[in-house]
């Protein structure tokens, strides 16, 4: 699957700062310390609707991670998937009387356009679940062979992962069993399914059903993969047995990331699967989380269609810390528009305060668990002084523009 088109990222003077991130498993901020090229896997969209601001905020978070690593001279291998076969996609296609393949292709193409407009550095590998099915089949067969998975005895052909094969299950989310069960039901699990060994056992392979797409599964029979194993296999195939960051929205912490890590650790015998499990907060509107079920989504493509500058969208989403659940408001957007205009005016000034001090401040704020509010405040102070005629550094305005471009992804 093709990714979106990238853009040139300015090279900044001096040395980048090592990045520290909050790890959900350890519940604290710890340095990222890649051995060799930094590796990151981010769970992408299920393409049954357009990119909303929650998607954009999550993807911008991990774009910042990539930018910080690259600024520090670290090569990066970044993988993002597309869940281009799943129940929500099939349900939306059936509701609208549309071919599910056409729906997925259209929304994936729109997502790529939105990411390009928001100036996200594209992943090295942009991979669909469907194109990965042969590799997924191989890994599910291996789990069955090793006794870490089992078939239901109801004739459906469904295969489940046995969570007792992952003795550390729960370490990533730090949830109790009582907390897991309702979340599992809310987020695609089936704790009430008869015949399972444990209500929390996740689906690995769904046997073929009438009027549903399916693929050959060898010894598994015809069917399609479960959600969690898709990401496991794509990450293992492209990034190896251990990755530096597994990322996504905080609604993926459980069960998706917990289960995908359990699958990976059982397949490889290596733990933990990721050095950092990093989760972005949700974006709300009018006091509620944005979601398709609530019908309160703000779509990036619609804003672009209304001639909104994508850099203003990006700045508005950077105004809050990535780990916080936060609201999209008119006031937030208006402030971002004003900030963008102010920064562009400052970047056109003849001189400004010391650009090297600004660069150091932005680097250090972002290195501290992506403190974007602190980074924006540092840039605001520089811009205010430049517009006031303070400072005699003739090279500073250009360095200011390069700094916010390279590190924040905001083109002035």
What does this structure look like?
- This protein is of the alpha/beta class and 412 residues long.
- 42% of the residues lie in helices and 14% in strands.
- It contains 13 helices and 14 strands.
- It has helices at 53-71, 87-96, 100-117, 133-145, 177-186, 227-239, 253-268, 300-305, 310-318, 330-347, 355-367, 372-387, 396-408, and strands spanning 20-23, 28-31, 38-42, 76-82, 125-128, 149-151, 159-161, 203-207, 223-225, 243-249, 274-280, 283-285, 288-289, 326-327.
- The strands form 4 sheets. Strands 5-4-3-10-11 form a 5-stranded parallel beta sheet, sandwiched between helices. A 4-stranded antiparallel beta sheet has the order 6-7-8-9.
- β10, α7 and β11 (274-280) form a beta-alpha-beta unit.
- α10 (330-347) packs across α12.
- It is elongated, with a radius of gyration of 22 Å.
- 47% of the residues are buried.
Terminal CA distance: 31 Å
Helical region count?
13
- Backbone shape: elongated
Structural class: alpha/beta
Mean pLDDT: 96
The helicity comes to 40-55%
The strands making up the biggest β-sheet line up spatially as 5-4-3-10-11
């Amino acid at each position: 699957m093709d990714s979106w088109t990238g853009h040139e990222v300015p090279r900044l003077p001096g040395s980048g700062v090592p990045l520290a991130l909050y790890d959900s498993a350890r519940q604290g901020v710890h340095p990222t310390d890649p051995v060799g090229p930094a590796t990151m896997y981010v769970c992408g969209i299920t393409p049954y609707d357009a990119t909303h601001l929650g998607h954009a905020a999550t993807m911008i978070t991990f774009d910042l991670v990539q930018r910080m690593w690259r600024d520090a001279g670290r090569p990066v291998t970044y993988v993002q998937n597309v869940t281009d076969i799943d129940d929500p996609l099939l349900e939306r296609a059936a509701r609208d009387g549309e071919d599910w393949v056409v729906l997925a292709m259209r929304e994936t193409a729109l997502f790529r356009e939105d990411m390009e407009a928001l100036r996200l550095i594209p992943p090295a590998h942009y991979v669909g679940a469907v194109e990965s099915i042969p590799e997924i089949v191989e890994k599910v067969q291996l789990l069955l062979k090793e006794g870490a998975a089992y078939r239901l005895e109801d004739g459906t052909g469904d295969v489940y992962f046995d969570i007792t094969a992952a003795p550390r299950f729960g370490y990533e989310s730090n949830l109790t069993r009582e907390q897991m069960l309702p979340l599992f039901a809310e987020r695609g699990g089936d704790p009430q399914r008869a015949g399972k060994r444990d209500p929390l056992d996740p689906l690995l392979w769904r046997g073929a059903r009438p009027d549903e797409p399916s693929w050959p599964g060898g010894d598994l029979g015809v069917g399609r993969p479960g959600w969690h194993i898709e990401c496991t296999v794509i990450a293992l195939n492209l990034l190896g047995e251990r990755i530096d960051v597994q990322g996504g929205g905080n609604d993926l912490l459980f069960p998706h990331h917990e289960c995908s890590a359990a699958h990976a650790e059982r397949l490889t015998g290596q733990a933990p699967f990721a050095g950092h499990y990093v989760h972005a907060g949700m974006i709300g509107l009018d006091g509620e989380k944005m979601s398709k079920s609530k019908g309160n989504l703000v779509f990036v493509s619609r804003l672009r269609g209304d001639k909104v500058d994508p850099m203003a969208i990006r700045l508005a989403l950077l105004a809050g810390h990535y780990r916080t659940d936060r609201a999209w408001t008119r006031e937030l957007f208006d402030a971002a528009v004003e900030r963008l205009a102010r920064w562009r005016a400052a970047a056109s000034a003849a001189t400004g305060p010391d650009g090297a001090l600004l660069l150091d401040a932005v680097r250090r704020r972002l290195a501290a668990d992506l403190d974007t509010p602190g980074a924006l405040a540092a840039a605001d102070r520089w811009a205010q002084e430049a517009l006031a005629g303070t400072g005699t550094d003739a090279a500073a305005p250009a360095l200011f523009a390069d700094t916010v471009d390279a590190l924040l992804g905001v083109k002035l």
